[in-house]
Fold this protein.
Amino acid sequence: MRNGHISKVGALSVAAIVAAIAVACATPPTDREISAKATEMLKTSFKARGQAGMDRLDQDETQRLCTQYAGKEIPKDVSERIEQLNLQAVKWPSDGNYLGDFKNGERVAQEGRGKQFSDDPKGPVGGNCYACHQIGPQEVSFGTIGPSLRHFGKLRGYNDDIRKYAFGKIWNADAYAACSNMPRFGHAQILSEQQVKDLVALLMDPESPVNK
Amino acid sequence: MKFDYTCVAARAGMLAFSAAIAGGVTVALAQDSTVEGIAKYRAALQDGNPAELWEARGEGLWKTARGPNKVSLQKCDLGLGPGVVKGAYAQLPKYFADGDRVMDLETRIVHCMVTLQGYTLDDAKKNPYGSSDRKADMEAFVAYVTAESRGIKMNVSDKHPKEQEAYRLGEKMFFFRGGSHDFSCATCHGEDDKRIRLQDLPNLMKAEGAQKAYTTWPAYRVSQGELRSFQWRLYDCFRQQRFPELEFASDASIALTTFLARNANGAAFDAPAIKR
């Protein structure tokens, strides 16, 4: 290859030789450099539209760490830090009651709209839970990214610990599993406290179809 | 290219109608048979793809003298030399020395509209995604050019440093978590055999998934009555990811397309396809 270059030297301008050497000798950018460039690229490749402003691309510490370790094993100290950070941020219901209305919970679980630039900012906003989970027995159109929640309360017991866990998990999934695929519905102000309670009821009320 | 327009349109209408009925009936059945029904519906769709209408319109527009310079796009170099359309899409995105950057098909068409036809950049990028009352020329161009690569093996280059960089930037984009919902591309496209509702999700981190997905775009979307380009596919994924709007022919869109297209290398291109 080197010989090939030399034999063509006469035909090449000095500038072209310099460019060829630069290409041949340039070391590829480091992972850190590519990450920094990708972040810059995002800023010039997206534009604010509707309710989705450019601040949607500003990562908090959890998003930043989860991006950094995506596709790799997360070191234990990092995953513990993420979980601790998010658990501390859970706003527990002031009245100590986790259980809302399971019928409304079903509506929240079905509703897929909310927070997209194409959605009406005035709502409705749902959890779109069926996109990823099996929940009620009557709904056959459910996704499989998350585990089945069928018989959630029946299998785990109708007690306050599990109710509290369900509330916390829906409010901020990363508090229990760092870099979960599940949105942090309460933490990110996607759903209201009442909507989260209604979802807890859907999972934990003995009368909910989920537990029938 | 000869065919009966009325016949294709009528068949598409019939299919959409029977699909709506099939959809209504299957809801009552158990999920397995619903999935089976969807598979049958998809198979039925393959007979008669309205994408042909976009292909024909695109070919016509491609060969028509247009723009301030009143020339056609027939001299456009899509990477295999001026005027070569056959097989061009299967090796895109690639580095183009005349722009000193990596371009995907749509970006390259914009480049040709500007340099050959004399359009302004803004005019060339205008209206990339059509609707029933305002068809997009870009989607017609995309249909025509991609159809000319049907059956040809994907062969996206990684020789040029800028091609290597675009791939790595695209990979970073794929894993970038953000927005109100913490979603990245990998949230939905990083595991085998997952679904959203009943929609199968390709695992784009594996060659098989990337190949199957990438080689079947662009596609005629029955639910929208439009042919959708790969740029549109990414735009709509990010909408659902709760990100701001991905700009048409932006650097991020080109980088992500480079990442996905090269992961599909080796598979025969098979689009424009037809999807629900």
